[in-house]
Amino acid sequence: MQPNQIIMSAKAAATRLNILQKAFGLVYQNGYRTTSVDEIIATTQVTKGAFFYHFKNKDEMGLAMINEVMVPGMQGALIGPLSDSDDPVTEIYAMMHSLLMENPFFIVKYGCPAVNLVEEMASHNEAFQSALMKLNNQWHEAIATCLEKGKTSGKIKKDTDSKQVAYFIMAGYGGIRNLGKIYGKESYKGHLEQLKFYLETLI
Amino acid sequence: MQPNQIIMSAKAAATRLNILQKAFGLVYQNGYRTTSVDEIIATTQVTKGAFFYHFKNKDEMGLAMINEVMVPGMQGALIGPLSDSDDPVTEIYAMMHSLLMENPFFIVKYGCPAVNLVEEMASHNEAFQSALMKLNNQWHEAIATCLEKGKTSGKIKKDTDSKQVAYFIMAGYGGIRNLGKIYGKESYKGHLEQLKFYLETLI
DNA sequence: TTAAAAACATACTAATTAGTATGTTTTTAT
DNA sequence: ATAAAAACATACTAATTAGTATGTTTTTAA
Predict the structure, then answer these.
(1) Which sign does the torsion angle of CA B87, B73, A118, A36 carry?
(2) Protein side of the strand C interface (CB < 7 A)
(3) Residue A51: HSE in the Cβ half-sphere, 13 Å Cα cutoff
(4) Which terminus of chain B is more exposed, N or C, with fewer CB under 10 A?
Protein backbone atom coordinates (compact mmCIF):
# COMPACT_ATOMS: atom_id res chain seq x y z
CA MET A 1 0.00 0.00 0.00
CA GLN A 2 1.73 3.10 -1.25
CA PRO A 3 0.90 6.43 0.41
CA ASN A 4 -2.02 7.93 -1.43
CA GLN A 5 -0.94 11.28 -2.76
CA ILE A 6 -3.99 13.51 -2.42
CA ILE A 7 -4.34 15.97 -5.27
CA MET A 8 -4.07 19.50 -4.00
CA SER A 9 -3.04 22.90 -5.32
CA ALA A 10 0.43 24.07 -4.36
CA LYS A 11 -1.10 26.86 -2.34
CA ALA A 12 -3.43 24.53 -0.47
CA ALA A 13 -0.53 22.18 0.21
CA ALA A 14 1.44 25.11 1.59
CA THR A 15 -1.42 26.08 3.89
CA ARG A 16 -1.69 22.53 5.13
CA LEU A 17 2.03 22.16 5.72
CA ASN A 18 2.16 25.54 7.42
CA ILE A 19 -0.49 24.39 9.87
CA LEU A 20 1.39 21.18 10.57
CA GLN A 21 4.73 22.91 11.10
CA LYS A 22 3.36 25.62 13.37
CA ALA A 23 1.40 23.03 15.29
CA PHE A 24 4.57 20.99 15.73
CA GLY A 25 6.41 23.98 17.15
CA LEU A 26 3.63 24.74 19.59
CA VAL A 27 3.18 21.11 20.62
CA TYR A 28 6.90 20.79 21.22
CA GLN A 29 6.83 23.66 23.67
CA ASN A 30 3.40 23.26 25.26
CA GLY A 31 2.29 19.67 24.79
CA TYR A 32 -0.35 18.33 22.44
CA ARG A 33 -3.47 18.47 24.54
CA THR A 34 -2.69 21.91 25.91
CA THR A 35 -2.14 23.37 22.47
CA SER A 36 -5.51 24.58 21.23
CA VAL A 37 -6.72 24.73 17.67
CA ASP A 38 -7.35 28.43 18.23
CA GLU A 39 -3.71 28.87 19.20
CA ILE A 40 -2.56 27.02 16.11
CA ILE A 41 -4.68 29.03 13.71
CA ALA A 42 -3.66 32.26 15.42
CA THR A 43 0.05 31.64 14.91
CA THR A 44 -0.55 30.23 11.46
CA GLN A 45 -2.70 33.15 10.32
CA VAL A 46 -5.16 30.62 8.96
CA THR A 47 -8.86 30.66 9.71
CA LYS A 48 -10.82 27.96 11.44
CA GLY A 49 -12.57 27.18 8.20
CA ALA A 50 -9.27 26.41 6.53
CA PHE A 51 -8.08 24.33 9.46
CA PHE A 52 -11.14 22.12 9.52
CA TYR A 53 -11.19 21.93 5.77
CA HIS A 54 -7.76 20.29 5.81
CA PHE A 55 -8.31 18.14 8.92
CA LYS A 56 -11.57 16.70 10.07
CA ASN A 57 -10.58 17.15 13.71
CA LYS A 58 -7.66 18.02 15.96
CA ASP A 59 -6.45 14.45 16.35
CA GLU A 60 -6.30 13.91 12.60
CA MET A 61 -4.14 17.01 12.38
CA GLY A 62 -2.03 15.70 15.25
CA LEU A 63 -1.46 12.41 13.47
CA ALA A 64 -0.53 14.18 10.24
CA MET A 65 1.81 16.40 12.23
CA ILE A 66 3.56 13.35 13.64
CA ASN A 67 3.81 11.53 10.32
CA GLU A 68 4.61 14.45 8.07
CA VAL A 69 6.67 16.79 10.25
CA MET A 70 7.93 15.10 13.39
CA VAL A 71 8.89 11.71 11.95
CA PRO A 72 10.81 13.05 8.94
CA GLY A 73 12.52 15.63 11.13
CA MET A 74 13.47 13.12 13.79
CA GLN A 75 14.70 10.64 11.21
CA GLY A 76 17.22 13.22 10.13
CA ALA A 77 18.34 13.81 13.69
CA LEU A 78 18.35 10.17 14.82
CA ILE A 79 19.40 8.11 11.88
CA GLY A 80 21.14 10.74 9.79
CA PRO A 81 24.31 11.10 11.88
CA LEU A 82 24.69 7.34 12.28
CA SER A 83 26.20 6.05 9.07
CA ASP A 84 29.78 7.20 8.47
CA SER A 85 32.20 5.20 10.60
CA ASP A 86 32.29 1.40 10.61
CA ASP A 87 32.99 1.18 14.32
CA PRO A 88 29.67 0.95 16.21
CA VAL A 89 31.09 2.43 19.41
CA THR A 90 32.35 5.51 17.60
CA GLU A 91 29.30 5.64 15.40
CA ILE A 92 26.68 5.41 18.14
CA TYR A 93 28.53 7.78 20.40
CA ALA A 94 28.85 10.29 17.58
CA MET A 95 25.15 10.02 16.86
CA MET A 96 24.23 10.65 20.48
CA HIS A 97 26.70 13.49 20.77
CA SER A 98 25.36 15.15 17.67
CA LEU A 99 21.81 14.58 18.87
CA LEU A 100 22.34 15.99 22.35
CA MET A 101 25.04 18.59 21.88
CA GLU A 102 25.06 19.77 18.30
CA ASN A 103 21.54 19.73 16.94
CA PRO A 104 20.33 23.34 17.01
CA PHE A 105 16.68 22.42 16.90
CA PHE A 106 16.32 21.01 20.39
CA ILE A 107 15.74 23.31 23.33
CA VAL A 108 17.02 21.70 26.52
CA LYS A 109 14.13 22.81 28.70
CA TYR A 110 11.60 21.41 26.23
CA GLY A 111 13.37 18.09 25.79
CA CYS A 112 12.75 15.96 22.73
CA PRO A 113 9.43 16.32 20.88
CA ALA A 114 9.16 12.60 20.19
CA VAL A 115 9.93 11.61 23.76
CA ASN A 116 7.48 14.19 25.03
CA LEU A 117 4.74 12.93 22.79
CA VAL A 118 5.25 9.33 23.84
CA GLU A 119 5.05 10.45 27.42
CA GLU A 120 1.89 12.47 26.90
CA MET A 121 -0.04 10.56 24.30
CA ALA A 122 1.05 6.91 24.10
CA SER A 123 -1.59 5.82 26.58
CA HIS A 124 -4.30 8.13 25.26
CA ASN A 125 -4.28 7.78 21.47
CA GLU A 126 -3.59 4.51 19.71
CA ALA A 127 -2.93 6.08 16.33
CA PHE A 128 -0.37 8.41 17.87
CA GLN A 129 1.20 5.53 19.74
CA SER A 130 1.48 3.45 16.61
CA ALA A 131 3.08 6.27 14.65
CA LEU A 132 5.54 6.98 17.47
CA MET A 133 6.31 3.30 17.79
CA LYS A 134 7.23 3.13 14.13
CA LEU A 135 9.70 5.98 14.61
CA ASN A 136 11.19 4.28 17.63
CA ASN A 137 11.38 1.02 15.73
CA GLN A 138 13.30 2.70 12.95
CA TRP A 139 15.81 4.15 15.36
CA HIS A 140 16.05 0.87 17.19
CA GLU A 141 16.71 -1.03 14.01
CA ALA A 142 19.34 1.45 12.90
CA ILE A 143 21.22 1.06 16.18
CA ALA A 144 20.81 -2.70 16.36
CA THR A 145 21.90 -3.14 12.76
CA CYS A 146 24.94 -1.00 13.41
CA LEU A 147 25.84 -3.29 16.32
CA GLU A 148 25.26 -6.45 14.31
CA LYS A 149 27.51 -5.11 11.58
CA GLY A 150 30.13 -4.56 14.27
CA LYS A 151 29.74 -8.13 15.44
CA THR A 152 30.52 -9.57 12.01
CA SER A 153 33.43 -7.20 11.50
CA GLY A 154 34.81 -8.16 14.91
CA LYS A 155 34.46 -4.75 16.49
CA ILE A 156 31.68 -5.83 18.87
CA LYS A 157 31.60 -8.85 21.17
CA LYS A 158 29.77 -11.80 19.63
CA ASP A 159 27.60 -12.38 22.69
CA THR A 160 26.17 -8.84 22.58
CA ASP A 161 22.38 -8.68 22.54
CA SER A 162 22.14 -5.93 19.95
CA LYS A 163 18.41 -5.39 20.34
CA GLN A 164 18.62 -5.14 24.10
CA VAL A 165 21.58 -2.80 23.89
CA ALA A 166 19.75 -0.64 21.39
CA TYR A 167 16.77 -0.26 23.71
CA PHE A 168 19.11 0.52 26.59
CA ILE A 169 20.76 3.29 24.61
CA MET A 170 17.39 4.67 23.54
CA ALA A 171 16.12 4.62 27.11
CA GLY A 172 19.18 6.55 28.19
CA TYR A 173 18.48 9.14 25.54
CA GLY A 174 14.85 9.64 26.54
CA GLY A 175 15.80 9.70 30.18
CA ILE A 176 18.49 12.31 29.87
CA ARG A 177 16.17 14.48 27.77
CA ASN A 178 13.84 14.31 30.73
CA LEU A 179 16.47 14.99 33.38
CA GLY A 180 17.84 17.76 31.22
CA LYS A 181 14.59 19.62 31.77
CA ILE A 182 15.53 20.09 35.41
CA TYR A 183 19.33 19.78 35.40
CA GLY A 184 20.12 21.60 32.17
CA LYS A 185 22.49 20.89 29.32
CA GLU A 186 25.40 20.16 31.66
CA SER A 187 23.75 16.87 32.51
CA TYR A 188 24.04 15.82 28.85
CA LYS A 189 27.82 15.81 29.13
CA GLY A 190 28.00 13.36 32.00
CA HIS A 191 25.53 11.15 30.27
CA LEU A 192 27.67 11.04 27.15
CA GLU A 193 30.72 10.10 29.21
CA GLN A 194 28.92 7.23 30.86
CA LEU A 195 27.46 6.17 27.54
CA LYS A 196 30.99 5.95 26.19
CA PHE A 197 32.03 3.73 29.10
CA TYR A 198 29.02 1.54 28.54
CA LEU A 199 29.65 1.28 24.81
CA GLU A 200 33.25 0.29 25.43
CA THR A 201 32.09 -2.74 27.39
CA LEU A 202 30.63 -4.02 24.13
CA ILE A 203 34.07 -4.28 22.53
CA MET B 1 12.62 26.56 58.84
CA GLN B 2 10.40 23.77 60.08
CA PRO B 3 7.23 22.98 58.11
CA ASN B 4 4.43 25.06 59.54
CA GLN B 5 1.73 22.69 60.72
CA ILE B 6 -1.53 24.38 59.94
CA ILE B 7 -4.18 23.78 62.58
CA MET B 8 -7.07 21.90 61.11
CA SER B 9 -9.80 19.53 62.30
CA ALA B 10 -9.20 15.86 61.62
CA LYS B 11 -12.18 15.87 59.27
CA ALA B 12 -10.92 18.87 57.35
CA ALA B 13 -7.48 17.31 57.08
CA ALA B 14 -9.10 14.16 55.74
CA THR B 15 -11.00 16.13 53.12
CA ARG B 16 -7.83 17.88 52.08
CA LEU B 17 -5.80 14.69 51.88
CA ASN B 18 -8.59 12.97 50.00
CA ILE B 19 -8.49 15.71 47.37
CA LEU B 20 -4.72 15.41 47.06
CA GLN B 21 -4.76 11.63 46.77
CA LYS B 22 -7.55 11.50 44.21
CA ALA B 23 -5.90 14.29 42.27
CA PHE B 24 -2.65 12.34 42.26
CA GLY B 25 -4.38 9.28 40.86
CA LEU B 26 -6.04 11.29 38.12
CA VAL B 27 -2.89 13.23 37.28
CA TYR B 28 -0.91 10.00 37.07
CA GLN B 29 -3.26 8.64 34.44
CA ASN B 30 -4.24 11.79 32.56
CA GLY B 31 -1.56 14.39 33.12
CA TYR B 32 -1.77 17.49 35.29
CA ARG B 33 -3.05 20.08 32.89
CA THR B 34 -5.64 17.77 31.39
CA THR B 35 -7.05 16.85 34.78
CA SER B 36 -9.73 19.40 35.60
CA VAL B 37 -10.74 20.64 39.01
CA ASP B 38 -14.28 19.53 38.16
CA GLU B 39 -12.99 16.01 37.53
CA ILE B 40 -11.12 15.99 40.83
CA ILE B 41 -14.07 17.15 42.88
CA ALA B 42 -16.35 14.70 41.07
CA THR B 43 -14.23 11.68 41.99
CA THR B 44 -13.57 13.07 45.44
CA GLN B 45 -17.25 13.76 46.18
CA VAL B 46 -16.19 17.16 47.44
CA THR B 47 -17.75 20.41 46.35
CA LYS B 48 -16.03 23.23 44.60
CA GLY B 49 -16.42 25.37 47.68
CA ALA B 50 -14.43 22.85 49.72
CA PHE B 51 -11.77 22.53 47.05
CA PHE B 52 -11.14 26.25 46.83
CA TYR B 53 -11.36 26.61 50.56
CA HIS B 54 -8.40 24.28 50.96
CA PHE B 55 -6.43 25.53 47.95
CA LYS B 56 -6.44 29.02 46.57
CA ASN B 57 -6.06 27.70 43.02
CA LYS B 58 -5.33 24.56 41.02
CA ASP B 59 -1.56 25.04 40.97
CA GLU B 60 -1.38 25.37 44.75
CA MET B 61 -3.24 22.09 44.98
CA GLY B 62 -0.86 20.61 42.44
CA LEU B 63 2.16 21.66 44.44
CA ALA B 64 0.66 20.26 47.64
CA MET B 65 -0.10 17.05 45.76
CA ILE B 66 3.53 16.75 44.72
CA ASN B 67 4.93 17.54 48.15
CA GLU B 68 2.45 15.67 50.29
CA VAL B 69 1.49 12.67 48.19
CA MET B 70 3.86 12.09 45.29
CA VAL B 71 7.16 12.83 47.03
CA PRO B 72 6.49 10.70 50.13
CA GLY B 73 5.16 7.90 47.96
CA MET B 74 8.09 8.00 45.57
CA GLN B 75 10.60 8.16 48.41
CA GLY B 76 9.26 4.83 49.57
CA ALA B 77 9.58 3.34 46.11
CA LEU B 78 12.94 4.89 45.22
CA ILE B 79 14.97 5.03 48.38
CA GLY B 80 13.14 2.45 50.46
CA PRO B 81 14.44 -0.68 48.70
CA LEU B 82 18.01 0.64 48.55
CA SER B 83 19.53 0.06 51.96
CA ASP B 84 20.00 -3.58 52.87
CA SER B 85 23.05 -5.01 51.10
CA ASP B 86 26.50 -3.41 51.34
CA ASP B 87 27.34 -4.17 47.72
CA PRO B 88 26.29 -1.23 45.54
CA VAL B 89 25.90 -3.36 42.41
CA THR B 90 23.51 -5.72 44.14
CA GLU B 91 21.84 -2.93 46.01
CA ILE B 92 21.19 -0.66 43.05
CA TYR B 93 20.10 -3.50 40.83
CA ALA B 94 17.70 -4.73 43.52
CA MET B 95 16.26 -1.25 43.88
CA MET B 96 15.67 -0.95 40.15
CA HIS B 97 14.23 -4.44 39.94
CA SER B 98 11.84 -3.77 42.76
CA LEU B 99 10.93 -0.42 41.27
CA LEU B 100 10.25 -1.74 37.78
CA MET B 101 9.05 -5.28 38.35
CA GLU B 102 7.64 -5.60 41.85
CA ASN B 103 6.00 -2.34 42.84
CA PRO B 104 2.25 -2.86 42.41
CA PHE B 105 1.46 0.83 42.23
CA PHE B 106 2.92 1.53 38.81
CA ILE B 107 0.91 0.85 35.69
CA VAL B 108 3.23 0.23 32.76
CA LYS B 109 1.18 2.18 30.22
CA TYR B 110 1.09 5.21 32.52
CA GLY B 111 4.79 5.13 33.34
CA CYS B 112 6.12 6.84 36.45
CA PRO B 113 4.17 9.75 37.93
CA ALA B 114 7.30 11.68 38.83
CA VAL B 115 8.88 11.22 35.42
CA ASN B 116 5.61 12.18 33.75
CA LEU B 117 5.32 15.33 35.78
CA VAL B 118 8.87 16.41 35.02
CA GLU B 119 8.14 15.87 31.36
CA GLU B 120 4.90 17.82 31.43
CA MET B 121 5.51 20.56 33.96
CA ALA B 122 9.22 21.23 34.49
CA SER B 123 9.29 23.90 31.82
CA HIS B 124 5.92 25.39 32.73
CA ASN B 125 5.86 25.76 36.50
CA GLU B 126 8.91 26.70 38.53
CA ALA B 127 7.45 25.62 41.85
CA PHE B 128 6.65 22.22 40.44
CA GLN B 129 10.09 21.96 38.92
CA SER B 130 11.77 22.84 42.19
CA ALA B 131 9.74 20.26 44.11
CA LEU B 132 10.46 17.59 41.51
CA MET B 133 14.13 18.49 41.50
CA LYS B 134 14.32 17.98 45.24
CA LEU B 135 12.89 14.50 44.84
CA ASN B 136 15.37 13.73 42.07
CA ASN B 137 18.18 15.12 44.19
CA GLN B 138 17.25 12.82 47.03
CA TRP B 139 17.28 9.79 44.81
CA HIS B 140 20.50 10.92 43.22
CA GLU B 141 22.17 11.37 46.57
CA ALA B 142 20.99 7.98 47.78
CA ILE B 143 22.48 6.27 44.73
CA ALA B 144 25.69 8.32 44.73
CA THR B 145 26.22 7.75 48.46
CA CYS B 146 25.68 4.05 47.97
CA LEU B 147 28.41 4.06 45.32
CA GLU B 148 30.78 6.12 47.45
CA LYS B 149 30.28 3.69 50.29
CA GLY B 150 31.20 0.94 47.85
CA LYS B 151 34.35 2.78 46.89
CA THR B 152 35.65 2.95 50.45
CA SER B 153 34.73 -0.68 51.11
CA GLY B 154 36.55 -1.71 47.93
CA LYS B 155 33.49 -2.99 46.09
CA ILE B 156 33.48 -0.19 43.54
CA LYS B 157 36.39 1.09 41.41
CA LYS B 158 38.06 4.14 42.94
CA ASP B 159 37.92 6.13 39.72
CA THR B 160 34.14 5.86 39.48
CA ASP B 161 32.34 9.18 39.13
CA SER B 162 29.51 8.34 41.49
CA LYS B 163 27.42 11.40 40.71
CA GLN B 164 27.68 10.87 36.98
CA VAL B 165 26.87 7.19 37.32
CA ALA B 166 23.88 8.02 39.52
CA TYR B 167 22.47 10.37 36.87
CA PHE B 168 23.09 7.75 34.20
CA ILE B 169 21.12 5.18 36.16
CA MET B 170 18.32 7.65 36.79
CA ALA B 171 18.16 8.57 33.14
CA GLY B 172 17.89 4.92 32.24
CA TYR B 173 15.00 4.55 34.64
CA GLY B 174 13.07 7.51 33.26
CA GLY B 175 13.80 6.42 29.73
CA ILE B 176 12.60 2.87 30.16
CA ARG B 177 9.44 4.11 31.88
CA ASN B 178 8.88 6.10 28.71
CA LEU B 179 9.67 3.27 26.30
CA GLY B 180 7.57 0.94 28.42
CA LYS B 181 4.55 2.98 27.43
CA ILE B 182 4.90 1.73 23.89
CA TYR B 183 6.84 -1.53 24.28
CA GLY B 184 5.24 -2.84 27.47
CA LYS B 185 6.63 -4.48 30.58
CA GLU B 186 8.79 -6.89 28.57
CA SER B 187 11.09 -4.01 27.78
CA TYR B 188 11.79 -3.57 31.49
CA LYS B 189 13.48 -6.96 31.61
CA GLY B 190 16.03 -6.22 28.92
CA HIS B 191 16.76 -2.92 30.55
CA LEU B 192 17.47 -4.60 33.86
CA GLU B 193 19.86 -7.03 32.17
CA GLN B 194 21.80 -4.25 30.53
CA LEU B 195 21.78 -2.27 33.75
CA LYS B 196 23.38 -5.25 35.45
CA PHE B 197 26.12 -5.37 32.79
CA TYR B 198 26.70 -1.67 33.19
CA LEU B 199 26.84 -1.88 36.97
CA GLU B 200 29.36 -4.70 36.79
CA THR B 201 31.75 -2.45 34.91
CA LEU B 202 31.95 -0.37 38.08
CA ILE B 203 33.50 -3.23 40.03
C1' DT C 1 -15.44 30.94 -20.67
C1' DT C 2 -17.97 28.79 -17.46
C1' DA C 3 -19.73 25.41 -14.26
C1' DA C 4 -18.18 22.78 -10.54
C1' DA C 5 -15.29 21.64 -7.16
C1' DA C 6 -11.69 23.05 -3.96
C1' DA C 7 -10.09 26.23 -0.63
C1' DC C 8 -10.94 29.32 2.55
C1' DA C 9 -13.69 32.94 5.75
C1' DT C 10 -17.04 34.35 9.37
C1' DA C 11 -20.04 33.71 12.82
C1' DC C 12 -21.89 30.87 15.49
C1' DT C 13 -22.68 26.74 19.33
C1' DA C 14 -22.55 23.68 23.29
C1' DA C 15 -19.45 21.93 26.50
C1' DT C 16 -15.79 22.62 29.60
C1' DT C 17 -12.53 25.43 32.08
C1' DA C 18 -10.75 27.81 36.56
C1' DG C 19 -12.41 30.60 39.73
C1' DT C 20 -15.90 33.63 42.61
C1' DA C 21 -19.90 35.31 45.33
C1' DT C 22 -22.69 34.26 48.66
C1' DG C 23 -24.61 31.52 51.19
C1' DT C 24 -25.19 27.42 55.19
C1' DT C 25 -23.41 24.10 58.34
C1' DT C 26 -20.09 22.44 61.53
C1' DT C 27 -16.46 22.90 64.82
C1' DT C 28 -13.96 25.30 68.39
C1' DA C 29 -12.96 28.19 72.24
C1' DT C 30 -14.88 30.69 76.00
C1' DA D 1 -24.63 27.71 75.65
C1' DT D 2 -23.00 30.84 72.48
C1' DA D 3 -20.26 33.68 69.46
C1' DA D 4 -16.80 33.34 66.15
C1' DA D 5 -14.23 31.06 63.07
C1' DA D 6 -13.61 27.09 60.14
C1' DA D 7 -15.40 24.09 56.78
C1' DC D 8 -18.20 23.30 53.36
C1' DA D 9 -22.30 23.95 49.64
C1' DT D 10 -24.69 26.10 45.64
C1' DA D 11 -25.08 28.84 41.97
C1' DC D 12 -23.08 31.59 39.28
C1' DT D 13 -19.34 33.91 35.65
C1' DA D 14 -16.14 34.90 31.93
C1' DA D 15 -12.92 32.72 29.15
C1' DT D 16 -11.63 28.95 26.39
C1' DT D 17 -12.46 24.64 24.08
C1' DA D 18 -13.37 21.70 19.66
C1' DG D 19 -16.28 21.75 16.18
C1' DT D 20 -20.25 23.34 12.80
C1' DA D 21 -23.24 26.00 9.60
C1' DT D 22 -23.18 28.77 6.08
C1' DG D 23 -21.32 31.54 3.54
C1' DT D 24 -17.53 33.63 -0.26
C1' DT D 25 -13.50 33.29 -3.05
C1' DT D 26 -10.25 30.79 -5.77
C1' DT D 27 -8.76 27.13 -8.68
C1' DT D 28 -9.49 23.56 -12.05
C1' DA D 29 -11.31 21.05 -15.90
C1' DA D 30 -14.27 20.91 -19.92
Answers:
(1) negative
(2) A 8-9, 11-12, 15-16, 46-50, 53-54; B 9-11, 35-39, 48-49, 52, 56-59
(3) 25
(4) N
